[in-house]
Amino acid sequence: MRERKSAGYSLIELLIVVGIIALVGAFALAQLKPKSDAEQVASAVSRRIQERRSAAMKLSPQMAQTTISYYLPPVVIDFADLTTTRSLLLPETVEIDCSHTPQATCVTPPATDGGVGVWTYQYQGQALNLPSGWRVAASQSDLSPIPGLRLGELTTAVGFDRQGRPDPRPSQDSLSETGTIESPFWAIYLTNGTEARAIAIHSTGFVEPLRYDAGQWTGYGGRLIP
User: Fold this and answer.
1) Hey, how many other C-beta atoms are within 10 angstroms of the C-beta on 148?
2) Number of structural domains found in the chain
3) What's the per-residue H, E or C state across 136-178?
4) What is the reported pTM?
5) Does one domain contain both 119 and 172?
6) Residue 52 belongs to what domain range?
7) Using 50, 70 and 90 to split pLDDT, how confident is the model at 128?
8) How far apart are CA 133 and CA 221, in angstroms?
9) How far is CA 140 from the centre of its chain?
């Protein structure tokens, strides 16, 4: 006679299933948990900067499709003028002569050879809406009493070139006392007077959100920022 095998799951299998369910549940709760004002404002500013950087890189190949090449100035996002924080409306190709397509991002050619033309940018979507009590620091005194980053040069606006790099760049790299090269970066500071966040735009175009907590600035993975 054959021995019957018992049906059902073993204890180990049940524990594995319960563990997976617990992990999925914890992840779902973390996603549903409302973000603090500090997290919301840092996330919104970081996302809009990254969108503008992508737009600058997309405009360059579109411009190359025109019959004449025009120099593309840095594509800027300025948090002192929140209307510029809306998404940039990009056409399929860059139009020459804005009178033909007034609703599209376009360039008006210079009147004479070697002259300066005018770029007209069109926006879409909603401008950044800061949580109550929060502001973009326009100066170091506006950030006080929270200290600024030693290498983070305060700004409210940043422009990107066609490679997605900041243009202009902050002051030149310097040699530290330890002999290492230190690279300054643009920093957009956000504060409500007691808390602070900063969005660092590094020389490569990498955008990194930073947080101020317990008297120290930290970046990804708890990396301490001088």
Assistant:
1) 19
2) 2
3) ECCCHHHHCCCCCCCCEEECCEEEECCCCCECCCCCCCEECCC
4) 0.76
5) no
6) 40-124
7) very high
8) 28
9) 21
